[in-house]
Description:
Helix content is 38%, strand content 22%.
Amino acid sequence: MTDVCRWDVPGRVNLIGEHLDYNGGPVLPLAIDRSVTVKARSRNDGVVNVWSDLPGAAKVSFPVGVQPGEVDGWATYVAGTVWSLAERGHPIPGADLVIESRLPSGAGLSSSAATTCGVASALNDLFGFGLDITTIALVAQGSESGFVGAPVGLMDQLAVLHGSADHALLIDTAVTPHTVTPVALGWEADGLVLAVIATGAHHSLADGEYAARREECERAAAELGLEWLAQAGLDATVRLEDETLKARTRHVLTETARVRGAVNAISRRAWEQLGTILTASHASLRDDFQVSCPELDVAVEAALEAGALGARMTGGGFGGSAIALVAPEQVQALRERVEARYEARQWGRPEVFVVHAADGAHRVPDPGVKLGG
Length: 373
């Protein structure tokens, strides 16, 4: 029997620093204890077969020479990773892949990055390509940007690959390669937890709004004569004439300052200050960057009403999840309040759960693993 390798890759929560990874700003994500598992077995017939435990996901097969536009649906991310590897000079002879997810899809918790990084890691392992973490992150990013059509930055990939238990990761996106610095988290020792509110609202970075925000930021940076919008000075919004570009720039400037403030608050275990920073971030994303939605706004409001020190949307926006820094004994009250607010609006029930900072992608010994037939 051909050997099977198995990789577990966590999702991620971005604590703060939203929409900064493509603007040359600092970001502060953490890998979480919910993951995607990729099981891989080699073939030599030029075919890739993929199975998934996603609801309604049927087996998908495609050739190793797959090109953008030839696969759609959930398997696009897998096909894109095979394509991205080949584009970097690492074609595979064929493979059987099984994708199992414990991440809510479309919740803004980087199920896509976990999948692409997991497939890239498993195939790198299986065929001995010898790729380092940075290259695997670039392969995964290439899958989303070049094949799926979502022009994502590198934050999600680096977060799920470099994650460390009980730590967030301060990533400087202005340098190449990006630097990744672990930041020790102490809120659990001080009686707090990080809760995720998965709103159930549709979340897809390939829908066009994400690309539009990125294009607006690039225009603002060009008008200011900057490589990265995060390099803008305090006079940037005065120098810009377009009101939309002013608002986008204002978010990037203030969010950059909030990341630095959050790192400082964490180092001093100033949790109320951190909570205030999280909530201010949400207001900026809602008003200046305009990437929130009613479901996210209500989730944040309900979390604050339930006693959270701070709350905000996390991820690209337009749906997905919110996070809240809260005492463990308040989680149930938070859940009930959010559910009641959603029910009153006849929205679907949100999912509320606590996450812990976890280790990044890693191979898991599993001699008894089986793949679909």
